[in-house]
Amino acid sequence: MSRNAAAAASNPPRTGAISVKVWRGDANGAFQTFSVPRREHQTVLDVVTDIQRTQDSTLAYRYACRVGMCGSCAMLVNGQPRWTCRTRVDRIKGETLKLEPLRNLPIVKDLTVDMAPFFDKWQRAHGYFEPGENPPDDFASIAPQSAERRQADAGIECISCAICYSACDVVSWNEDYLGPAALNRAWTLVNDVRDRGQPERLTAVSGDAGCHSCHSHMSCTTFCPKGLSPTASIAGLKRATAARAWRGRR
Ligand code: SF4
Ligand code: SF4
Ligand code: FES
To answer: Which residues are near ligand 2 (CB < 6 Å)?
Structure first.
């Protein structure tokens, strides 16, 4: 028997309907239960779409790309933050699904959250490219193997899904904390040798709500669907801000 056939025999496909508890309303809402037919290769986003198209057209949720690029479909699935377009139902343990909006962001309605506080923190962390007053006309030539280029590459594939932000307990405790995504973006830019905004950026990320508030418990890294490590990026910022303080340039 092939390895795939053996795996299928020991883990037969589940059939019948899935019982799905879905958060409805705002922060004072409640769960509503739906029954959705199981389908082969079904994703959690397929389940939500099925409910919205066939049972309750008022259900609010977000998605755009369905292929893991836009970051808009994130929500809590059985208590864990996930990108639902790439999360297969048959990989979720248990017979029921419990779907809630992301943690640490205001609920707009049902499964949608207000992303404004998340992106405001990208601004506060100077998570945008600063070309300087007189940027060169020519393209910059950056050696692919340079340390800075590899450090920048490590965090650049962020799709701003806010899964890490939802997973971070420090964000829950301190609503001012910039959070893993904004800090990961800031570290990516610290390593961008073309950028001319480094002093202001390092100041922005070194305050009470910045990188030194991170407890390094790695929930962000555990749940990031792109396999990034905001924890490592934040450690880089801690080193960079500490080195600057040692040099007396705070
Ligand atoms: S490592 Fe830092 S940013 Fe990541 S979840 Fe923990 S406290 Fe939050
Ligand atoms: S670092 Fe990962 S989890 Fe956080 S916003 Fe970017 S892609 Fe999403
Ligand atoms: S819909 Fe775009 S990442 Fe899921």
So the answer is: 71, 158-164, 180-181, 184, 224, 226, 228, 230
Q: Find tokens 């999360």 and name the residue.
A: 87
Quote the pLDDT of residue 13.
Answer: 60
Spatial CA neighbour of 45 closest among 14, 74, 6: 74
Q: Determine whether domain 11-113 maps to CATH 3.30.1050.10.
A: no
For residue 6, the CA-to-ligand 2 centroid distance in Å is 35
pLDDT number for residue 241:
96
What whole-number distance in Å separates Cα of residue 192 and Cα of residue 181? Answer: 17
Low-confidence ranges of the chain (pLDDT < 70): 1-14, 249-250
Q: What is the pLDDT of residue 148?
A: 84
- Per the listing, tokens 């990026």 go with 233
Domains of the chain by residue range? 11-113, 116-249
Rg (CA), the chain: 21
Q: ∠ at Cα 209 (203, 215), nearest 5°?
A: 115
Smallest CA separation from ligand 1 atom 8, residue = 168
How much is the pTM? Answer: 0.92
Those residues with Cβ within 8 angstroms of residue 61's Cβ, 6 or more apart along the chain or in another chain: 48, 52, 73, 75, 110, 111, 112
Measured from the Cα of 68, ligand 3's closest atom is 3
Helix (H) or strand (E) holding 4: helix 3-10
**Topology of domain 116-249, CATH:** Fumarate Reductase Iron-sulfur Protein; Chain B, domain 2 (1.10.1060)
**SS3 call for 148:** helix
